[in-house]
Amino acid sequence: MAGDRILVILIIVGIIGEAKIVAIAASVLLIIKLMKFQRFLPTLERRGLELGLLFLMIAILVPLVDGQVQSLDLLGALSTVTGIAALLGGILATSLNGPGLTMLRMEPQLMVGIMLGSIIGIVFLDGIPVGPLTASAIVFVLMRSYLWIKR
Fold first, then answer.
1. Where is 69: in which H helix or E strand?
2. Cα end-to-end distance, the chain, whole Å
3. Residue 68 per-residue DSSP state
């Protein structure tokens, strides 16, 4: 029952905070639970991230397919300081996502803080939700920095 309450709270906060993805995700999970389809939850947990990343990658590649970005634009973008920074940012972000995901799997209770932080950022700082994977990578960097400073 505590899980149901948390999902309802997430739905309400998501609606109030205009975090539609949070509200929809919590709604889908609540429906799955209420309809007694819990047997699908392990599959969602195991494959949901892959499916989400697949759709994210598709969305990112659409400008290439519909002609918004030409192949010469790609090469030109990599010859500017901003383009090189974007390349390095992509490398850094993806390399940190792995350890972030590992940490999240080892300490799933961190998801509560990540979700609350995301909602606070959306509601009060006009932020855009980037997802728990990127947030867990940032948590990983923050924790590594904290442990390094603490030594």
1. none
2. 42
3. S
Is the distance from CB of 114 to CB of 97 less than 8 angstroms?
Answer: no
What amino acid is encoded at 92 in this protein?
L
Q: Which pLDDT tens digit goes with each residue over 97-144?
A: 888 888 888 888 888 788 788 878 877 887 877 777 788 888 889 988
Q: In whole angstroms, what is the distance from residue 110 CA to residue 118 CA?
A: 12
44-53 own/partner pairs: CB under 8 Å, 24+ apart: 49/101, 49/133, 52/131, 53/133
**Token pair 């989400």 in the structure block, residue:** 52
Q: In this structure, are residues 137 and 143 in contact, taking their beta carbons and an 8 Å threshold?
A: no
CB 3 within 8 A of CB 103: no
Residue type, 2: A
DSSP one-letter string for 84-129: HHHHHHHHHHHHHHHHHHHHHHH-TTHHHHHHHHHHHHHHHH----
Task: Answer yes or no: are the C-beta atoms of 74 and 60 closer than 8 Å.
Answer: no
C-alpha span between 140 and 104 (Å, rounded) = 9
Map out the domains of the chain as residue ranges.
93-151
Q: What is the pLDDT of residues 41-84, one digit of tens each?
A: 888 877 887 788 788 889 888 887 887 777 666 777 778 888 88
